[in-house]
């Protein structure tokens, strides 16, 4: 069986009145189609390519993305992906692959994915290469009758009016189609032509360095090096490089920095890879290669009229830490329920504006963190003495190993990045007056505080609290039951589902100290308070973006937020 995903459907576009057009069928576009589709919206997704993963990136799937996949019923698909369940997700730093191992960060395999997050999450991070990850997302989307995926269809431009947005689409055979919908989500990647057409600029630092990435088959690698398996090997000699495992066997992506202005021929790429392995004659087959630039940039605007940017179209970051796609999936997790609520006619425009207010600071935070990881790696020594078998070389390796342990582990100890983001100052979150807890990249402290991820607690029936969230809002009560009628009426009037859940008998009290906690469909706490007399109408108007708080109260200070992340 070929390891590459199959091509996607390329037929005519015949979906009846889409609610949302998604441009781009990378992981973020597929995630958008799924999340919008399960909410009952009619979705048309088009992608200019054929849907085959010719050049795989983004294997590191974080705990928050896994929680989202769990909500959609596809987290367990990782167990049936082609990546071996027992292959350790270790990270190894070496001189060359056939040289000395300097340090190793041990991490459980996909099979043990819940170990590092016990008590924090019902899921855990996994290694799920694109061949199977995108395929699982695509299969979920194809299973939704209200979602149409069309490949080899390119968006050539968009136009919008007060009433809708039209995407001008052309298939590779020249067939044209104009797709009009109330909303469009641009998931068309780093070079987003939708973003360009709207004149939205990127803020930050562009093209900090250029790297080569080779997708390569090395049949004997694991057998010929004297190293325990790892998902990534970082070499320092004779040059910096990263070998990332794509199937736990013979497929690897090898990336390394290029000198400014230099490119490599295929023979040079093969020679570079062999040098980093340290076995001159090791057989290998180059399958694909890309030259890419590392950026630390975020779009100046996430929304223009009826068009929203998500994923790499909205932010680009160094791959260090594996946060790029995960941040993009976080974008659509945030946006999908908002679009559904507005399309159904029950929510306000403020709900859509809150997308940028909530997600842009997270992108600034995560791009900053990724850059910090990248720079910590650049600071590692690459001196030839590291190869010296004598005492001087040993001392140099010991010093390098110490530096790796002290400065590099944070990249993979990132539960804070994954789960600890918060929508502080969001116009659709009702603050409880408490002081914002510190946002630590490496550790996560659950907090059922407005704007934060609602914590995981095991319920008496064995499910997680997170399993309660997704379809609509959830009002948890941890002591006496509130009078359900005014809550029901307030949400029903807005055509939004509300479930009132009695949590007074469970272990929730510690994790959810407030008497009432209102959780959004994306699992974020929207409001918490006391049983006595909440102003229900005002709460509902705020959390649905009908009565947003003024902008000067809600402007997020990204600089303050990210200073500790550098
Ligand atoms: C070496 C490397 C390793 C990485 N590892 C990780 C990782 O482990 N974890 C992680 O989270 N991130 C990782 N990333 C980042 C990750 O690859 C990206 O963030 C992610 O692919 C972005 O997904 P996307 O769907 O937004 O865009 P893309 O994956 O770029 O998809 C965009 C899609 O839009 C389509 N498209 C473009 N223009 C048009 C048009 N005009 N009309 C129709 N379709 C169009 C394209 O065909 C493409 O399919 C890595 C990146 C690199 C370079």
What does this structure look like?
- The protein is of the alpha/beta class.
- Helices cover 28% and strands 22% of the residues.
- It is built from 15 helices and 23 strands.
- The chain has helices at residues 27-38, 63-71, 130-142, 193-198, 221-224, 266-277, 324-343, 349-378, 391-408, 415-419, 484-492, 508-511, 536-543, 551-554, 558-562; strands spanning 20-23, 43-47, 60-61, 91-94, 101-105, 126-127, 147-151, 153-160, 165-171, 176-181, 183-186, 202-217, 232-235, 241-245, 251-257, 285-299, 303-304, 307-309, 315-316, 473-477, 498-502, 516-519, 525-529.
- The strands form five sheets. It has an eight-stranded mixed sheet with strand order 5-4-13-14-15-12-16-19, with helices on both faces. The chain has a six-stranded mixed sheet with strand order 7-2-1-11-18-17.
- A hairpin with a 6-residue loop joins strand 4 and strand 5 (101-105).
- It is globular and about 75 Å long.
- The two termini are 44 Å apart.
- The structure holds flavin-adenine dinucleotide.
- The site of flavin-adenine dinucleotide has 33 residues, from helix 1, strand 2, strand 8 and helix 7.
- Flavin-adenine dinucleotide is lined by residues 23-29, 46-49, 57-60, 154-155, 187-189, 193, 213, 255, 292, 311-312, 319, 322-326, 328.
């Amino acid at each position: 069986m070929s390891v590459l995903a199959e091509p996607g459907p390329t037929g005519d576009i015949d979906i009846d009145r889409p609610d949302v057009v998604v441009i781009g069928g990378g992981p973020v576009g597929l995630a958008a189609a799924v999340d919008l589709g399960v909410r009952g919206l009619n979705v048309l997704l088009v992608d200019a390519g054929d849907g085959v993963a010719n050049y795989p990136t983004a294997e590191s799937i974080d705990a928050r993305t896994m929680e989202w996949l769990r909500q959609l019923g596809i987290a367990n698909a990782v167990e049936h992906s082609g990546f071996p369940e027992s292959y350790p997700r270790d990270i190894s730093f070496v001189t060359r692959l056939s040289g000395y191992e300097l340090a190793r960060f041990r991490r459980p395999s996909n099979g043990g994915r819940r170990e590092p997050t016990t008590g924090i999450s019902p899921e855990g991070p996994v290694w799920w290469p694109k061949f199977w990850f995108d395929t699982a997302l695509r299969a979920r989307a194809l299973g939704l009758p209200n979602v149409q995926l069309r490949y080899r269809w390119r968006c050539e431009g968009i136009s919008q009016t007060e009433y809708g947005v039209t995407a001008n689409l052309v298939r590779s055979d020249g067939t044209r189609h104009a797709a009009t919908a109330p909303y469009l989500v641009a998931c068309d990647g780093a070079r987003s032509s939708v973003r360009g057409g709207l004149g939205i600029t990127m803020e930050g630092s562009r093209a900090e360095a250029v790297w080569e990435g080779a997708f390569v088959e090395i049949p004997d690698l694991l057998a010929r090096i004297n190293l325990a398996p790892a998902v990534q090997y970082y070499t320092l000699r004779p040059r910096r490089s990263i070998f990332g495992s794509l199937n736990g066997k013979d497929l690897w992506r090898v990336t390394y920095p290029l000198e400014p202005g230099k490119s490599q021929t295929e023979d040079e790429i093969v020679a570079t890879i062999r040098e980093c392995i340290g076995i001159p004659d090791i057989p290998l087959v180059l399958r694909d290669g890309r030259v890419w630039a590392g950026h630390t940039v975020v779009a100046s605007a996430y929304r223009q009229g009826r068009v929203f940017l998500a994923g790499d179209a909205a932010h680009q970051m160094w791959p260090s830490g594996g946060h790029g796609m995960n941040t993009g999936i976080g974008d659509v997790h945030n946006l999908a329920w908002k679009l559904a609520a507005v399309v159904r006619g029950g929510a306000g425009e403020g709900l859509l504006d809150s997308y940028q207010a909530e997600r842009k600071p997270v992108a600034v935070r995560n791009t900053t963190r990724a850059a910090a990881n990248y720079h910590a790696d650049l600071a590692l020594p690459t001196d030839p003495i590291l190869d010296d078998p004598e005492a001087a070389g040993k001392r140099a390796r010991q010093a390098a190993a110490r530096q790796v342990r002290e400065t590099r582990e944070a990249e993979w100890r990132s539960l804070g990045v994954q789960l600890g983001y918060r929508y502080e100052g969001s116009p659709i979150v009702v603050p409880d007056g408490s002081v914002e807890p510190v946002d630590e990249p490496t550790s996560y402290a659950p907090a059922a505080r407005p704007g934060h991820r609602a914590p995981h607690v095991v319920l008496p029936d064995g499910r997680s609290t997170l399993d309660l969230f997704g379809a609509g809002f959830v009002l948890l009560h941890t002591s006496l039951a509130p009078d359900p009628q005014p809550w029901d009426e307030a949400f029903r009037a807005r055509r939004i589902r509300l479930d009132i859940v009695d949590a007074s008998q469970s272990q929730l009290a510690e994790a959810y100290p407030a008497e009432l906690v209102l959780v959004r469909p994306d699992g974020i706490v929207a409001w918490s308070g006391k049983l006595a007399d909440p102003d229900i109408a005002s709460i509902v108007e705020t959390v649905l973006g009908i009565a947003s708080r003024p902008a000067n109260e809600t402007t997020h200070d990204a600089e303050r937020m990210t200073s500790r992340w550098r």
